[in-house]
Hints:
It holds the Pfam family TENA_THI-4. Residues 22-225 form the Thiaminase-2/PQQC domain. The protein is 75% helix and 0% strand. It is an all-alpha fold. The longest helix has 28 residues, at 42-69.
Amino acid sequence: MSTSIDFDTGFFGRLRAAAGDEWTGYVSHPFVRALGTGSLPEACFRRFLVQDYLFLTQFARAYGLSVYKSTNLADIRAAAAGVEAVLAEIPLHVGYCAGWGLDEASMAAEPEAPETMTYTRYVSDVGHTGDILDLTVALMPCVAGYAEVGQLLLADPATVLDGSPYGAWLRNYDSEEYKTSVRTALDKLEDLSRRYGGEARFESLSRIFLTATRLETAFWQMGLDAARPEPR
């Protein structure tokens, strides 16, 4: 039987609670809800898929930065595993996109949307100017947020899997392997918060988390805006 992830407890739970309505707006964005019901216009999902490919490239670089920011072998190994996980996800993403008529060369040639660039460069800037805990906090709205979105949609009776063009994408978030990786990331955040003074730094860390959450929300909106007519 599939097990759920507890997003309410620990240091992540505190960051999530501090983000309040911003977090709720992110994980229940209209893009997400339409994805669940299968009513999302396909142009919106295509836009998301292309930009997510470009996003993953930058996300791998951010995890690479977390290797550099680590100060012991255990943290270096954990950060390197994060790089490997993202690199392993990219071919899966490319394979999935092929089913939508999107090949890797054409996606790589697409310019980054302003929302993609703003979000990924923000995470990079946090990593360059802060320590490993700052960077990990900036990454968590993506790492844990997508898991929560998947968990919410898969538990929602309004969600359509069979016959939906998005059913296969949603099912990816129900695998135990995926959920184990998210739990590992949450545990790592908990460990770093203890060792790097997370409690004393909670105010500044919560600002990082809130900003990253807002930028994730803007990423959903970027996809949704693809359904709007082009301005004349």
